[in-house]
Specification:
Layout lengths: L6 H13 L5 H19 L5 H29 L7 H17 L2 H11 L12 H15 L7
Length: 148
Amino acid sequence: MDLPFPWCVYAEHQSKAAACGRITDRSWGIENGLTNFLNAVESGSIPNQEEFQRGVNRAVDTGSWVERNHARLRRMYLRPQNHHSEQRVLARVRLAEIRESVSPNEWGLLMAVAAGVAYHEMTGITAGGARTRVARLRARLRPNGRAI
């Protein structure tokens, strides 16, 4: 079935997403392209077909690059650790202490950051405001000068 523009572009990228057998940097890129597509349709800012297709493809490439970069940074800075049960219990106790010492809004902000939500995607606060609040929370919650 041939869909009219711009939905033929969406169907093409949906097919590419469905063909991904695993979650990879490319599948995240395709997801980013689909999100870009829907944002453009929602805002009504659809340029001519060729320019629109280039924009969606650029969003796919950018999303793939971002995911590859995140993976590279994880490999560089996150070392696999062998956690023992005692360490897990202590981490949970510390997390419970942190939760009790912050407001529900602050906890929500910390959980959003921990879940990987980008600062500019957080609702009700500017990206700069979110970064400032998180930095202050980290400084306040840091035990004995250690990073959390």
